[in-house]
Amino acid sequence: MRSYIIGTGTIGKTLAVCLKLNGKDVQLIRGSVDDGISYTEEVSVKLKDGSELAAEIEFNSLSNFKVLEGLIIISTKSFGNGKLAEKLRKKVKNSPLVILQNGLGVERPFIENDFKDIFRGVLFVTSQNISKNSIRYIPVAPSPIGIIRQKRFDLDNIVNELDTSHFQFVSEMDIQRTIWKKAIVNTVFNSICPLLEIDNGVFYRESSVFSLAKRIIKECIRISKKSGIDLDAPEIEKQVMLISQTSDGQFISTLQDIRNKRETEIDTLNLEIHRLAKEMNKAGEVKETALLGELIKLKSALNT
């Protein structure tokens, strides 16, 4: 099955290299630019042990394809999902979608546009640009993929298409619980680190910062439980600490986006949790989470 990876950020490029080295037919499609230009460039991925993966990757545009037949992997920023779903609706006939994005509710535009097979992945990796086509990449754990909507394609087959030795995927039947857990972790990292202008390692280095993280986790768990997802605070705190230790020195994507004058995904993190809380008349229970999200929104707007 040919893989079309939409999104040329660090995740899209890293996955493209891993799949190409695994013998897959891969097209990397620019999500924000649709100029009809196709070209090939070498992309290198530097691993934590100092080794390097490299492959020649074909970059393309959506306008070059009338139909996308294969596995469609979404690795763009989630704020563009509405427009992307409309574009893909005419090009994707019976191909499955795998959404590799942060946040809650990111699959909603694809459901509303009546895509038949939608799978959601939750990434447990960190990545950061070193230069244009050079990426520093650290896998933390295999990334689970689960079913959002299913008609024709089997989950295990989808996972087998994507799984490689360096970018690992596993099947997950309770994907909503995993989505919430990761969303809460991202709510911590993607608000606190950019506001402090500091790397991911701050949580294990500074107990006062980790105390703030624990308060945010408790607020978010109140809303997850109201949404039918029963989570355990110590488990998420442990995950935050693990990611902080393994990605010490790396900068979270939201901070990179702000510095590069790009829109952030905070609407699907802190601000989505606040929106859900308001629907439940529980907005007062997520005051710190909402405030951090609003500050990120302002920081991003003032930096553009």
The number of distinct β-strands equals 11
Radius of gyration: 19 Å
Residues in β-strands, percent: 15-25%
Specify the structural class: alpha/beta
The first-to-last residue Cα distance is 40 Å
What order do the SSEs take from the amino end to the carboxyl end, as H and E?
A: EHEEEEHEHEEEEHEHHHHHHH
Average pLDDT over all residues? 95
State the strand order across the main sheet.
8-9-3-4-2-1-5-6-7-10-11
Give the helix proportion (percent range).
Answer: 40-55%
How would you concisely characterize the structure shown here?
The chain is of the alpha/beta class and 304 residues long. It is 42% helix and 20% strand.
Protein architecture, described:
This protein has 304 residues and is an alpha/beta fold. It has helices at residues 10-21, 81-89, 108-112, 155-162, 175-196, 202-205, 207-226, 233-246, 253-259, 270-279, 287-303; strands spanning 3-6, 26-29, 39-46, 52-60, 71-74, 97-100, 118-121, 125-131, 134-139, 143-149, 169-171. It has an 11-stranded mixed beta sheet, sandwiched between helices. Strand 10, helix 4 (155-162) and strand 11 (169-171) form a beta-alpha-beta unit. The longest helix is centred in the middle third of the chain and has 22 residues, at 175-196. The radius of gyration is 19 Å and the shape is globular. The mean pLDDT is 95.
Key terms for this structure?
single chain, 304 residues, 11-stranded mixed β-sheet, globular, 11 helices
